[in-house]
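Quick log. Single chain, no ligands specified.
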Amino acid sequence: MKLLKILDMREYGTQGRTKRYCLFECPMCLEQLERVKTEGLKSAQCKTCTNKLNAKKAITHGSTKTKLYKVWSNMKSRCNNPKATFYSNYGGRGIKVCKKWDKSFSKFEKWAKSNGYSTELVIDRIDNDGKYKPSNCRFVSVSKNNNNARHSMVLKHGIDYLSEVCECYQNTDITQEEISVLLNISSASVSNLVTGKHNYI
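-> predicted structure:
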C-alpha cells in the first residue's frame, strides 16, 4: 500500500511489545488505514480488497474445471498456438477468435449459456471461413448427424464439428468406438481423426 505518513510507536500484541504505525492508502479502494509499518509496506492492498480479489480468483479457478472452459481454451489454442493439433486448419489459414472472446472467458461463457449451450453440444462456425464470434457460432449435437458420411458432415457442419468431437475425446470419457458409430466412419479413420492426421481442408 502507499505510505502516506509515519505515525507513533504503539503497543502490539499481548507481550507489551511496541511497533511503528503508519498511515497507508489502499490503491484499489483509496481507503486510508493505520497499520504497522512493515505490514503495510508488504500489503498490495487492504484486507477487504484482498478478500474480493481472492473470491474472484476462486470463481475463475473453478470455471477452469468445466467443459465449457475447455471449449474456450481449445478454440483459442487452435487459432493462436502453432503447436496445436488443428492449428493448420484454423490459425494457419487465418481463422481468429474475436477480441471479446479471446480476452475474456466470462464473456464467452455468458454468450454460450444464453445460446443453448449444454455439455453434450459442441461449438460450430456457420461460415467455415469466418472467425469465432457471436454472430458466426452455434452449438450442435455430437450425435446430430450420425447417419451422415464424414465428407457430408464436413460440408454441412464445417471442420469445427469434427475437431470439437476430437477435443471431446481428449477431454471427456467418449471412446473411439463411440466416435466411429457417431460419425459412421471406420475405426482407422477415427484414429487418424483424434490424432490430427487427417487434413480436412
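The longest strand covers residues 2-12.
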